[in-house]
Amino acid sequence: MSDTTDAPKKLYIKTYGCQMNVYDSERMAEALGSKGYTETQSPDDADMILLNTCHIREKAAEKVYSELGRYKDLKAEKPDLKIGVAGCVAQAEGQEIMRRQPMVDLVVGPQSYHRLPAMEDAVREGQKALDTDFPEDDKFDTLRKRAKTKRGPTAFLTVQEGCDKFCAFCVVPYTRGAEVSRPADRIIREAQELVESGVREITLLGQNVNAYHGHDGGLAGLIWALDKVDGLERIRFTTSHPNDMDDALIDAHGTCDKLMPYLHLPVQAGSDKILKAMNRKHTAEQYIRLIEKIRAARPDLLLSGDFIVGFPGETDADFEDTMSLIRDVHYGQAYSFKYSTRPGTPAAEKPQLPDDVMNDRLQKLQGLLREQQVVTQDSMVGREVSVLFEKPGREAGQMIGKSEYLHAVFAHAPADVIGQVRRVRITSASSNSLGGDLI
Ligand code: 5AD
Ligand code: SF4
User: Fold this and answer.
1) Does the structure show a pLDDT above 70 at 3?
2) Residue 381 belongs to what H/E stretch?
3) Which of 39, 125, 249, 298 has minimal Cβ neighbours within 10 Å of its Cβ?
4) Domain membership of residue 274 as a residue range
5) Could you give the 3-state DSSP secondary structure of residue 315?
6) How many Å lie between the centroid of ligand 2 and the Cα of residue 279?
7) Rg of the chain over CA atoms, in angstroms?
């Protein structure tokens, strides 16, 4: 037995990558809470440092190794400090992490972090612990209840994990595994627990969230079930695949008041040849028709997307097709990336484009997306929005929250607006935020 079990200890978690990792980090902190850990914001006074990592692009994985390098001195000063790597780099590289960085004590994949308390016992006894299984015992069954702490007004809730789509560039089907949906009743219970802790807005998360099938009515059915949760005022979901945007979900965007008018619907590219090579299983035209249908249901919806430039085989003409799709659709906000080769994915076998071509295309694409974002932001001036206030802003007396369209909104307001949805008239716009007055 470890003599340190359950003694008060400090945990520093650094989270990389997507919102699913943010959610997982919260759950890992709760799991280690049973071993006496409370969270600290500084690695210097931690008894355990946990990096919750992302493997989606090469740079994301490299960041983890350089961060680990920074803890070398700290570990030399404090031999009892334990260092762990969680998340998708842990899943993909496993033992290799301990080989590259021998100071790492613990490696845990995204499907096995409910076993962290037992792994912590092992590392306190001086062993190394590695678990990158896709275990039979479901982590959400083991980690049933959410910790009863006071929370801010917004929270993430993972409803679905993994992906069966196998886009040719993407590691997710390998690191997160096959699509698995959590049962709706468990999600509703967790939503109720979050609301009891002060949450007013829940973002449902999944790598392929609209493929959710834990409710007979799919994701739309789950949203309607959550619509009945008293005290829950707003529902969002991310990330979706165009081929899973069914009619019921589109309809919910037009009819469910709690479902916010914002949709992140990645298309990745606008050339049919590249979409086919990416294994996206839809054409540019089908995506554009889908957007028209969604906008018919909810005309003011703010659309967001993801784009990859420089996928193997992308010509200038293919790139122009992506630019043209962006002009047709008009995005309020978007994310764009240079193609990054991921070992083990089908596209990694193909000849890569020169970096200067990719850089040039990324710059052009981001220029166009920025223009569209500015137009969208400016169009909000003079309009009224509903803002869920989340926290104080930097200026005295200023509060910050999110509009229904997910704009960051600043307004002068009393501190008790935090946790409330208030109407705000927008008076100014910058590229990333809006300013306004309480009505
Ligand atoms: N290279 C570049 N971008 C990628 N993405 C996923 N895999 C890669 C890759 N290999 C992007 C996609 C996805 C987002 C989460 O990350 O645009 O939608
Ligand atoms: Fe990756 Fe998304 Fe494609 Fe799944 S749908 S393989 S998560 S890009």
Assistant:
1) no
2) none
3) 125
4) 263-379
5) coil
6) 10
7) 22
